[in-house]
Automatic annotation (TrEMBL):
An example Gene Ontology biological process: phospholipid biosynthetic process
Transmembrane segments: 29-51, 57-79, 91-110, 116-134, 154-176, 182-201, 237-255
UniProt enzyme class: transferase
Keywords for this protein: Lipid biosynthesis, Lipid metabolism, Membrane, Phospholipid biosynthesis, Phospholipid metabolism, Transferase, Transmembrane, Transmembrane helix
Membrane topology, record value: Multi-pass membrane protein
Lineage: superkingdom: Bacteria
Species the sequence originates in: Rhizobium lusitanum
PANTHER family (alphabetical): CDP-DIACYLGLYCEROL--GLYCEROL-3-PHOSPHATE 3-PHOSPHATIDYLTRANSFERASE-RELATED, CDP-DIACYLGLYCEROL--SERINE O-PHOSPHATIDYLTRANSFERASE
GO molecular-function terms, A-Z: CDP-diacylglycerol-serine O-phosphatidyltransferase activity
Record keyword Zinc present: no
Classification via Pfam families: CDP-OH_P_tran_2, CDP-OH_P_transf
Gene Ontology CC terms, in alphabetical order: endomembrane system; membrane
Record-given protein name: CDP-diacylglycerol--serine O-phosphatidyltransferase
Domain CDP-alcohol phosphatidyltransferase C-terminal: 217-252
């Protein structure tokens, strides 16, 4: 009696029809993706905690999500585990953790008292974060990168934006009454941060390649970092407010430094170096 199907022959004519074979994946390739998944979980948990009026835990969860989302790529590079799948996962996590989560936490804590204006402000920030991340991805994939990209960001980076937009919440934790007047000011501030995300403002990246730290400054820098962490653990919201203010004050300094080098206060203006205006695929005015 004949069998209804021909016998399977390894590497034979029917092997290809069985589809791709399952194979083992090294653990080092999974670790960065697990960090990304944990970041998404933290960001979404922050939203839930905000709905439950547990605002301090909500902000902590969002900041933890931003931290995890910021290190997953570096972990992947250190472990030589970069992949296209991981890059796509990271992009999806970024919009949740740097755009949606902080905007909703601010809205639930304060902006809802400004009614429609507060919601519009939250929408503007979230969309701006998405545009900022899309622009970053396009620039990162360029075959020929500009020499200044190792020293400057184009606009405020999304992780910093998530930290900055939560300033009204930090102030609320310090005793500032979250009334309607504060809500309107918070809405204007949220829109401002969204504008800084999509602006062409040159922002120091802090990752200049080839520049080391002087040996005599290593220990003082380590000590200053330890003091900062200790203060952050003891006076969390005071330190976060100071950190936001210092970061905002540093933005004009970065623009001034860029202007001294290249003669303009924004990136991709007339005469900027290393920019092909005719083939700029990210849009000069986004």
């Amino acid at each position: 009696m004949k069998t209804p199907f021909p016998p399977f022959e390894p590497h034979g004519p029917n092997d290809e029809a069985r589809g791709p074979r399952l194979r083992e994946i090294p653990l080092r390739l999974i670790v960065p993706n697990m960090i990304t998944v944990l970041a998404i979980c933290a960001g979404l948990t922050g939203i839930r905690l905000a709905f439950e009026n547990r605002y301090e835990l909500a902000v902590a969860a969002v900041l933890v999500a931003a931290f995890l989302d910021g290190i997953d790529g570096r972990v992947a590079r250190l472990m030589k585990a970069t992949s296209k799948f991981g890059a796509q996962m990271d992009s999806l996590a970024d919009i949740v953790n740097f755009g949606v989560a902080p905007a909703l936490v601010v809205y639930i804590f304060l902006l809802d008292q400004a009614h429609s204006l507060g919601w519009i402000a939250a929408l503007i920030y979230t969309i701006a974060a998405g545009l900022r991340l899309a622009r970053f991805n396009v620039m990162a994939e360029r075959e020929h990168k500009a020499s200044w990209q190792s020293e400057y960001f184009v606009g405020v980076p999304a992780p910093a934006g998530a930290m900055l937009v939560l300033l009204p919440v930090y102030l609320g934790f310090l005793g500032l009454t979250p009334d309607r007047t504060f809500a309107y000011w918070g809405a204007a501030y949220t829109v401002l941060i969204g504008f800084l995300l999509v602006s062409r403002l040159p922002v120091w990246s802090g990752k200049t390649e080839g520049n080391g730290i002087r040996r005599d400054l290593v220990l003082p820098i380590m000590l200053a970092l330890m003091v900062y962490v200790a203060l952050l653990m003891s006076y969390t919201w005071h330190v976060m407010v100071v950190t936001v203010v210092v970061y905002l004050l540093s933005l004009p300094l970065g623009a001034r430094s860029w202007a001294k080098k290249y003669g303009t206060y924004t990136i991709n203006g007339p005469g900027d170096p290393d920019v092909d205006d005719a083939n700029d695929d990210i849009g000069r005015h986004i």
